[in-house]
Amino acid sequence: MQEKLPIFALIGASILWGLSWLPLKGINEMGIDGIALIFWAYALLSLVITPLLIKNFSIWREHIKMMLLIAFFGGGANLAFTYAIINGEVIRVMVLFYLLPVWGVAGGRIFLKEHIDRWRYLGVFLAISGAFLILGGFEALNAVPSWIDLIALVSGLFFAMNNLLFRAAQAIPVSSKLGSMFFGCFTLATLFLLAGVEQFPTEVEDNAWLMLSLYALLWLLVANIGSQWSVTHMEAGRSSIIIILELIAAVISATLIAGEIMTPLEYMGGGLIMTAAFIEAFRTKNDDAPVTTLN
User: Fold this and answer.
1) Within a domain: 289
2) By CB atoms within 10 Å of each CB, which of 16, 27, 226, 263 scores lowest?
């Protein structure tokens, strides 16, 4: 059971991420724009994690390069994902984000030399096929990509790379890696505000800042700890596919709450993605079998 704990923790965190559009869009409607929202949320998270960063300084100071990479990719992933969810269509953004199994499995193979067996190839195929169907199949190719589409794609790529870095940096405590990611996101949001991409709101009710603070400390912190602790204890390919449960949670909630209508094709796609996620969640090391290659 203990070896399954990272799996179930990642499933719970993924559901939180998939439902995160609800508080994000609600807070945004109260007058706090995307980058300012990210700035404040990750400023709080950075403040909370600072004592642990100081405590573990003697450990992570030997791995400054890895910490900076996590700050860039992890911080960038969180900023891009949050901004895209706030400003885009929930289902479309989540589907584009969930091309990350391709990056995760490929990256795990290239950088971490992880084994890819038949089940994992099947999981990737089902996941990507499902995402393709949800996006509308070949009809999606007729749509002109927007900046939000590009940001959603970048968030998926950066998130997959961040997962690989978290797993590769086993010598660094998870709390320190989380701290680097939080400070990275906070720093990037600060730079965008200073560059004038968005203005920091000055006429917002206190309730909005209170809701944002509660979201950061009770929702966002738990989701980050759950997902990043889990991916540190799992193969990159497996975690990248389980995380697709975020997409299922987002699609179902957007349909039931936001009134977004799913077609039979989209339901079929969701079924394929759910199948891929559970193939990864419940397979064991004994299921691994080498894939025959041509010499």
Assistant:
1) no
2) 263
